Amino acid sequence: MATFEIPTEQWAQVVEATGGPAIYKKIPVQQPGPDEVLINVKYSGVCHTDLHAMMGDWPLDVKLPLVGGHEGAGVVVAKGSLVKDIELGDLAGIKWLNGSCLACSFCMTSDEPLCANALLSGYTVDGSFQQYAIAKAAHVAHIPKGTRLDEVAPVLCAGITVYKGLKESGARPGQWVAIVGAGGGLGSMALQYAKAMGLNTIAIDGGEEKAVSCQALGAKAYVDFLSSKDLVAEVKAATPDGTGPHAVILLAVQEKPFQQATEYVRSRGTVICIGLPAKAYLKAPVFDTVVRMITIKGSYVGNRQDTQEALDFFSQGLIKVPFKTVGLSELQDVFELMKAGKIVGRYVVDTSK
Ligand code: NAD
Ligand code: ZN
Ligand code: ZN
């Protein structure tokens, strides 16, 4: 078995107060407990959730001080005495779901994201914006040997989440799905997973740069929410019979598209809510929802099986999403771009810089 030299101190990005900023500084390296592994994180994707966590956007208490991050790809360098199914030197991923009780009725029925005692990476426990991060061994993603860790990192939240959302939508090969927020991190992944699943996509986002990216990722149509005079009509017109998409995957970080989706989804269609804009509410006309038999659902990350399936799509070369790599020290700059809605695809931070 491989052995690793583990330092006592490491570089990390630490949020010390709600509202930020993230501060690049040295902190101690923790030891894994009996059922945990210590992962030397090489790259971590930056998810909009990390920004929500820093800004205190949600009605869920966040740990402070906080090391954010939950798309961490790295190498297992230490493990607790109870850990049998992963070896030192294996590649592994830190996901949003850092751990769960594995004994409640949700965990027993593979709905572990719904566990009341779930531990959330980069939210209720420290996450992957550090060089050495801890996770429960039962929950880490198993990444095949030889995988590029910068490229796979965004699969660990964005990929799993949109893959699960597409499954929850019930959309079948050949059907049409609108991806709202298609140019962002989750959206870019959603276009690729949908394509791999045989679905036709209508991308909705703002600006020319995102249009070009969405089309390159396989979108059959692009509707620009910033310039469209009648978004509802344009989305419906993008489907071959003009009746609208079978499903809508809402990934945007604004409330308005959540109010609009039932206007263009096809009758009997399904609206999947994934994006988590601050203080937002869903609104839909009761009459239309009833007489057009519309389903509205939430979808929250994925379970361990969804994780391995999402990674399998990636390993088969089906998921290629644009990403830019910067040093961990530059995380706050990434947050600024994210606030301005300027990110196409994903930013990945390299923990060695
Ligand atoms: P991102 O910032 O990369 O992308 C968001 C995209 O939405 C941007 O491209 C932006 O231009 C676009 N957008 C904004 N307003 C829009 C509008 N009115 N219409 C269409 N597009 C619009 O963010 P991300 O990392 O992809 O995360 C998206 C959201 O998903 C966040 O709220 C995040 O917290 C949430 N999320 C949820 C889960 C879950 O399990 N449910 C998991 C991960 C992330
Ligand atoms: Zn995320
Ligand atoms: Zn549980």
Describe the model.
By secondary structure, this protein is an alpha/beta fold. The chain folds into 2 domains: 9-157 and 302-350, Medium-chain alcohol dehydrogenases, catalytic domain (Quinone Oxidoreductase, Chain A, domain 1, Alpha-Beta Complex); 159-298, NAD(P)-binding Rossmann-like Domain (Rossmann fold), CATH 3.40.50.720. It has 11 helices and 17 strands. The protein has helices at 48-55, 105-108, 149-152, 158-169, 185-196, 208-216, 231-237, 256-264, 286-291, 304-315, 331-339, and strands at 9-15, 22-28, 36-45, 72-79, 91-94, 97-99, 119-120, 132-136, 141-143, 176-180, 200-205, 221-224, 247-250, 270-273, 295-298, 323-327, 346-350. Strands 3, 4, 5, 8, 9, 16 and 17 form a 7-stranded mixed beta sheet that branches. Strands 12-11-10-13-14-15 form a 6-stranded parallel beta sheet, sandwiched between helices. Helix 9 (286-291) links the parallel strand 14 and strand 15 (295-298). The chain is globular and about 60 Å long. The mean pLDDT is 97. Bound molecules: nicotinamide-adenine-dinucleotide and zinc ion (ZN) (2 copies).
